[in-house]
Every structure is written in structure tokens, then in C-alpha cells.
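Moderator note: this is an archived Q&A kept for reference. The question asked for a predicted structure of one protein chain; the sequence and the answer are reproduced below.
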Amino acid sequence: MIRLAVKQMGHSGNFSRISLRNLLLLFALCLPLIFSLATGARQSTPAADVSGSWTGALGGQLHLVITFAKLSDGEYSGQVNSVDQGAVLPMNAVTVQGQRIRFEITQIGGVYEGTLSNDHKQIIGTWTQAGVPPQPLNLTRSESTAPTPASSAPAASGPKEKPITVPIDVSIPIAPTAFKADGKMHLVYELHIVNMGPWDCTLTAIDVLPAGSSNSLASFSGAPLEGMLERPGVNALPKSKIEPGTNAVVFMWVTVDRKEDVPAAIQHRITVKLGDYPEELSVETDPLAVRTGPVVITPPLRGDHWLAANGPSNTSGHRRALIPINGRAVISQRFAIDWVKLGDDGQTYHGDKLDNKNYYAFGSEALAVADGIVTEVKDGIPLNIPGATSRAVPITLETIGGNHVILDIGNGCYAFYAHLQPSSIRVKLGDKVHRGQVLGLVGNTGNSTEPHLHFHISNASSPLGSEGLPYLLPSFEVEGKGWGWRPSDATGAPEKHTMELPAEDEVVRFPSQR
């Protein structure tokens, strides 16, 4: 069966695998968004210019629009638009060497390799994906997007003299709270950058500095920086080029080895090019305090083989779910996880995949992660039939999370549990609950494609109209990693983690709370 499988959570509290045969994409809890472009690879030999859009059909059935963008340093980035499935996926490790083209889509374990024709109008190639036989995929260039020869391209305008200031406005909606995951410390936040000048402003580098220091904690440029960018409302490449009066969002993820390496405050040195002005210009932002002490909670589930689908990473659908709610764009799902349970065969179900009861997660008890007060309950939404497009009710802001519960667990933190079974919720508005108490049963309601628990912590009692916060679990074990993981794949004992947040696609065993 022809298949473009996607191990990626999408936009609505559900996780997802895109497949021609079975579109199991558990969308994050949000309206559809365009995914960012990802990293490319530095050119090592002279290469043809493949910039622009290309079209093809995988197996003659799955229609794709593939777009390449050449960055100022010669690297490429790109994206794959699966038209029939309504998903846009970022490319990784794009290389163009001579007439050879290669790119990866790491989210789904896919690799494309092809050869550009002599007339530069076709790419003849093969798509290879884990668990799927190699398939031919030939691409045809869209003539309207063919690159313009440099000699005939109009020159961009720019300042005639060095500006007295860099005309950008930089804001950070919520300061980062340092947390530990996968054995290291992380700072996660966003830069919102508005170009207030009359010239194109191209971001060329962002350096993160301890406040008052010239030593970088992290530096981003080229394709890695391109992969961190989104252009709300603008679907243009490269995303690092910000037109006058428009804005970009930079999804920052800074990692250091030890807690002692986390500074009390950080600054940003942002380097840009303004139109055709020959020099790069830099500006340093004001210091930003780094928060510490994430909330510590116990697990929302019991047992083993729980996959942290669409969990914390800088490319997951949850991470990029910037949604305007009540006139303000927020990311309530910044650290959300769609917990899906794997069987010993690595699958999420057995038998008939259209029967919710056959999914290993279905009916699991959703547990209070701390003492708290119930601030929101939604019930009465019927179960979906598992599948990519099957929804029992129209999806709105009120139904997107399905049957759900929100707990106020104190200190401005709220725990959100989505997609519960109808009539399984055991608490009501205003109830005081205790850590480990059963709140309801895992189901498949709202914008969900199969049974799972969407869980996150945020700073307000609103599924989407709040800012997501990191949290720590006192203890859990990592059994393995990735979709399709099986116990037989293990090469040793599970790794114990303490005071950490599970990372994307880790397969986790929770300690008993009884």
C-alpha cells in the first residue's frame, strides 16, 4: 500500500500519523497552521538552483507540492505540502550537490533522493520511509516559480547611509522557565519581531547571551535559524526575510548541560541585513529574567509503554501552536503531550482499528497530578470513530478538546486533560481533588483521531487561551523511543529519570501511585 506516514502531532490535541491508507494524525489543539521550514545542509560542490515549487504524486495518488528556498549562505531549506492530507512538513538536511538532491523529513523517518534533469525541469527520484518499501517519486518544476537569473533580477532597495538604529521591534510574550529534560537544561520561549523599516529585513543570526556577557549560550544562523521561524499569515520563503510592516516569530529552544549553566537573565544579539545595504547590522535587546522552579507534579497516568507523542521539542505541532484567542496570540500547548499507549507489537491498537475499545489507551484512568480545585468540566460529547476525518461533532473552540477537565493546582498553574470518554468524568465544577484521584477515563472525543490523553499545564483556566508552562515529574523510566517501539527492541533496563519533563517520542513507564 502506498503510504506517506507522518509521526507528527498536528493541530488539535491529537497526535498524528499521516498515511494515504490511514491518516492517523493526532492534531494539536488548534486551528491548522503552516509548519516552519527546517534545516538544510551546506553546499560542498557547485550545484544547480532548485529554488521554487515542484509537484509530484506519490504512487500516483498522494499529491505533493515541494518547495525549496535558497538561503543567503547557499544552504537550502524547504517544505513538503501533502495536499490531499492538508499537512505541511518541514524538510531537514537538504543537500544539493551538482544535480543530486536529497532531503529528509525526520518527523516521519523519510528520505528523498533524486537527480535533476539536464533541462532543470524534472527531478527523478525515490522516496524511502521506515517500514515502507521505497517508492518512485518524480517531481516537475512549476514554471511560475522557476528561479530568475541573477543578472535580470531587480536589485532590492536599502538605506543609502548606515541607519542610526536597527528598525525592528522585539517582544517576548512570556519569559522562559528553565527545566530539565533528557538530562539537560532547557530554555523555551519565542521572539516576536516586527520590521518597522521601509526595507526588507533579513535575519542572519541570533545569539543568546548571559546578561552583561559577550559569551554566547547559543548561536543560530543559516538553515537552523530558518527552521526556527514562522511567518504568521505569510506563506513565503525564505522565512528569514521580513518585509516592511510584517512580522516573524522565532521559536527559541536553548539547551545547556547543567543547572549551573543557566544564567539569571539573558539578552539577544540580533543581526540583520537591510535590503541591499552592504553591511550586516546588530542590536542587543534588554535583559530578560529567567524563571526557575517549574511546578512538580505526579504523572497523569499509570503503567508502561506510554509514548509522549508530539511531546516537548522545538518542532512538534504543540510547540508551534500559536493561536489568537480573544485578541491575543498564545501557546497553551507549548509543553503538551499526547499520551498514546503502545502494545507489545508496537501498535496502538489490536484487531479492528475502527473500534475504540481495541486501543490500548482507551479506558485508562486519568489521574489528578496534584491537589487542586476543578475549574472547568465539559461532558456529553460522543466518541469519534477512529480515523483521520471522523468527528462525532463539529469542531469549535468549545468542542475541540472533547470531554475535558481543568484543575487549578495552585501558584498560577492549571492542569488540562482532553478527549475523555463521555459520562466517565468523576468530578464536577468546584470539587476539591487529591493527588492521584481518578478524574475520568481516556477516550476519543473532540478533535481526536484515536484514543489518547492530551495533557498540559498552563497559566490560566482555558484550554487554548493561556500560556503553556513546563513541569517536572519526580520519577519515570524511559523504556525506548519512537513510534512502533516494542519491548523486544530494548537493549537494556529502562533508564530512570528524576525531576525531568518527558521529551518527544520517549516511551515511558510511570511509577505506581497506589
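Archived answer notes: Residues 1-45, 146-155 have pLDDT under 50 and may be disordered.
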